[in-house]
Design a protein that fits this description.
Strand content: 25-35%
Distance between the termini: 52 Å
Number of strands: 4
Pfam families: DUF397
InterPro entries: DUF397
Organism: Streptomyces endocoffeicus
Largest sheet: 4 strands, antiparallel
Domain DUF397: 5-57
Protein name: DUF397 domain-containing protein
């Protein structure tokens, strides 16, 4: 089996214990994992990841993080 080259964001600090998202390409698939739980891996296509990131940038998903009024 080929070793996967996980890449951490340049915004993440160096050292252990830092929570961050890591990305790797496995063939034509993008794999994502959280550094705190590296055994759990999500996979997607580059196009779908790009669409998600674009939606986040333009605020299209902000309503999902809103705290409901009580």
């Amino acid at each position: 089996m080929t070793e996967v080259n996980w890449q951490k964001s340049s915004y993440s600090s160096a050292g252990d214990g830092n929570s961050c998202i890591e990305l790797a390409f496995i063939g034509t698939t993008v794999a994502l994992r959280e550094s705190d739980d590296p055994r759990t891996v999500l996979t997607t296509s580059p196009a779908r990841l790009g669409a998600l990131l674009q939606s986040i940038k333009v605020g299209a998903l902000d309503h999902l993080a809103a705290v409901p009024e009580t």
